[in-house]
Amino acid sequence: MPRRIYEGYAYSDAARAECIWPLPDQTWPELTDAETTEVAIVGGGFTGLSAALHLAQSGAEVTLLEAHVPGWGASGRNGGFCCIGGDKIGLGAIRQRFGVAAAQAYFNAQRGAIDLVDDLLSTHGIDAETHSSGELQLAHRPDILPTLRAERDLWAEYGVDATLIPQQDLADQGASGTFHGGLHVPLGFALNPGRYLTGLATAAANVGALIRANSLVQSITRSGSTYKLKTPRGQLTARKLILATNGYGADGLPDWLTGRYLPLQSNILITRPLTEDEIFAQGWTTDLMAYDSRHLLHYFRLLPDRRFLFGARGNVRASAQGQAAMRARMRRDLAAMFPAWVNVETPFFWSGLVSLSRDLLPYAGPIGDWEDAWVGMNYHGNGVAMGTWVGARLADLAMGRDPLLPIHARPLPRFPLPSIRRSYLYPAILAYRLKDGPVT
Ligand SMILES: Cc1cc2nc3c(=O)[nH]c(=O)nc-3n(C[C@H](O)[C@H](O)[C@H](O)COP(=O)(O)OP(=O)(O)OC[C@H]3O[C@@H](n4cnc5c(N)ncnc54)[C@H](O)[C@@H]3O)c2cc1C
């Protein structure tokens, strides 16, 4: 029996009820028969849809099974930062562990992932309300400034001209708050994830990928050279398998996956549209996507319709009470960091699951020793670009092309004592909160 590691609330519609992003309004049929296909994909987020699109474009027969509707998971409820990321340890540590060439290849993949999303938006005519030229990282304490300087120097080694912004210049850049300086990294852009997701699903369907919604895969079995996927009312038989369930996956589906991912909640609070007076009163006028330097970081951006999006992680309980407590915490943090908005209403709040690896690196590679079966996951909360890119690389693998994955395809370690791995988050989050200090 597949086993999920959070309470049912995390997998319910309640967790995403106030999400403002549009989901595709097409009606996708459910799998209600015994069907066969060449490649079966489980999961209709950026990873699964990108794999489906690239496979169908290469002429493969592909059926994607989604438990709800495409975009129901993290892909339809994120902050829309299409940015560098995917790991949690940084290029410096990756270079130490894997060497200079592999770190360069990984950097190229991160940059290529952003370019891929950009290409998909223009090729398929998707209006995803893009804005923001790169990202702004903001120091929450003065002692973080040397770290930003070191990061600037590291970026330079990869040919990226990042700019340090001293505290006294932040206001001129329209980035006033309680910050002590910043680093602008000119990579990435912001988008409306619902619109991007809808465009991607439509593009995949237009080139022949079959999408089956409300088709929860309950078991995956291998028999000879085929895979059988059972849903409540149907069965799909395929020669090849791609798993793209990320934080919404379940232990035992299949067995190899057990303990090789750790879902973590991320949350978003949205204000009502701000007036220009309110925006100027706070001095946050930039359209740059931004985040602070805390371990439990806040991420934020002014949306094109002048609402303010404010995201954070750090809650372990998945319940209505847990969600209410996190909402209250984020409301306090917003008021502390952007004091002029202390009384601004925040009518929308939702949460979703991202996923971590034990070694804090993303994964794209085989499902154990199963032949012609792959999984892409664990983007550490940065899967808009990386998930899209990994989906394309999984399509390469299924088409027999070598996608050159020096880091992503390493053997993926299990968390120790997998069944209690969620409990590791309590001390980790407490330690991070103590290190980060109070939110001011
Ligand atoms: C609140 C929040 C904010 C975020 N902000 C950002 C951001 O700004 N930038 C960024 O880069 N990343 C962000 N992320 C992370 C990013 O959204 C994810 O990394 C990315 O969407 C993962 O895509 P995916 O396709 O791999 O997984 P998901 O989008 O989670 O899709 C997995 C899908 O699999 C389906 N599924 C699961 N089990 C089954 C089954 N048995 N049968 C059938 N279907 C199944 C689920 O229903 C789900 O739709 C954020 C995430 C959250 C939750």
As for the number of domains, it is 2
Question: What share of residues are in beta strands?
Answer: 15-25%
Largest sheet: 8 strands, mixed
Task: Give the CA-based shape.
Answer: globular
CATH class of the largest domain: Alpha Beta
pLDDT < 50 runs, ≥5 residues? none
N- and C-termini, Cα separation: 46 Å
How much is the radius of gyration in Å? 21 Å
* Helical segment count: 10
State mean pLDDT (0 to 100 scale).
Answer: 97
Please state the second-level CATH architecture of the largest domain.
Answer: 3-Layer(bba) Sandwich
Secondary-structure element sequence? EHEEHHEHEHEEHEEEEEHEEEHEEEHH
Structural class: alpha/beta
Description of the structure:
- The chain is an alpha/beta fold.
- The protein folds into 2 domains: 8-78 and 194-261 and 358-418, FAD/NAD(P)-binding domain (3-Layer(bba) Sandwich), CATH 3.50.50.60; 131-189 and 263-356 and 428-436, D-Amino Acid Oxidase, Chain A, domain 2 (2-Layer Sandwich), CATH 3.30.9.10.
- The chain has helices at residues 46-57, 90-98, 100-123, 145-157, 167-170, 193-206, 276-282, 320-337, 383-398, 425-436; strands spanning 34-42, 62-65, 81-82, 135-138, 163-166, 181-185, 189-190, 210-212, 219-223, 226-230, 235-243, 262-270, 289-292, 298-302, 308-313, 348-356, 363-366, 373-377.
- Strands 1, 2, 8, 9, 10, 11, 17 and 18 form an 8-stranded mixed sheet that branches.
- Helix 1 runs parallel beside helix 9.
- The mean pLDDT is 97.
- Bound molecules: flavin-adenine dinucleotide.
